[in-house]
Amino acid sequence: MGARYYGADSENGDRIDDPSEDALFMMISDLNDSDNTFVVVQPDEDDPVWFTSVAVLDEGGYEIVRRDTTRNEHEVTTSTSINDIARDLTIWMAARRISVY
After folding, report:
1. Phi/psi of residue 71, each to 5°?
2. Are 25 and 87 a contacting pair, CB within 8 Å?
3. The dihedral of CA 53, 20, 37, 64: what is its sign?
């Protein structure tokens, strides 16, 4: 059985189901500029309506993408604070939790 709500997958194959803010912080902290350059979080379903990703930038910091087709949202930002990224994504994803019932 997959994640009840969503899962976080990194380029190196790590996966965390329903990641907490702390788990996102750890996954983002593990990113590097060679073989683990991004993390994608999305609902655990065949055709997810939203996703968010964090990718390492060549010049330092991170690019954060938030996309939600049901709300017509598409935002791309940058940040250097892993704390801020993990907190903001946790809040953003909590507003999008899907029902499994």
Report:
1. -110, 5
2. no
3. positive
Give the H/E segment covering residue 85: helix 82-94
**CA 88 to CA 62: how far, in whole Å?**
13
For residues 62 and 39, the answer to whether their CB atoms sit within 8 Å is no
Q: Tell me, yes or no, if the pTM score tops 0.85.
A: yes
Question: Residue 64: beta bridge partners?
Answer: 54, 77
In this predicted model, what pLDDT tens digit does every residue of 19-49 receive, in sequence order? 999 999 999 999 999 999 999 999 988 889 9
State which amino acid sits at residue 29: S
